[in-house]
Amino acid sequence: MNRREILQGGVLLSAAMFAGLAEAAGMEDHDHDHMQHQHGGSINYSELAHAATHCVMFGEACIGHCLELLGQGDKDMAACAKSVEETLAACNALRQLATWESVYVPRMAKVVMDICKTCEDECRKHEKHKPCRDCAEACAACYKECAKVAV
Fold first, then answer.
1. Residue 53 belongs to a domain with what CATH number?
2. Contact at 8 Å (CB) between 50 and 138?
3. pTM (2 decimals)?
4. Overall domain count for the chain
5. Is residue 39 one of the residues assigned to a domain?
6. Would residue 100 count as lying in a domain?
7. Could you please report the per-residue DSSP string of the chain?
8. Tens of pLDDT along 23-46?
């Protein structure tokens, strides 16, 4: 799989996620009298979900680049690849929880802040490579969104 395919996959993932958010937002206007639960006091985490999605999208491109360089013998990319893998797992979980407006979002955001900061720092060491630079920027943006809701 080349970088173009990875980026295209990330774009498709973002589009699908935003379509889901738009659909979920539209559902608030429907009559839910037949349901047995209430939606009182929900918090909208759409900006956080958006930031986490971008982190995943750029992280996938970065990990593809890291693997390519590792395959060529560049062992300096191992730490970058590891931090990006951790970020992908954390941001995917955060994105899902934020989309679902879970009560666990503030606590998860605190954990993801730490993971994104570590990933950003590692990717900055390799920012001469565009995928690493883009991943670092996405991690910084996700960190800022997490800070708005973290406890």
1. 1.20.1270.360
2. no
3. 0.72
4. 1
5. no
6. yes
7. --HHHHHHHHHHHHHHHHHHHHHHHHHTTS--TTSS---TT----HHHHHHHHHHHHHHHHHHHHHHHHHHTT-GGGHHHHHHHHHHHHHHHHHHHHHHTT-TTHHHHHHHHHHHHHHHHHHHHTTTTSHHHHHHHHHHHHHHHHHHHH--
8. 444 444 444 343 333 344 567 899
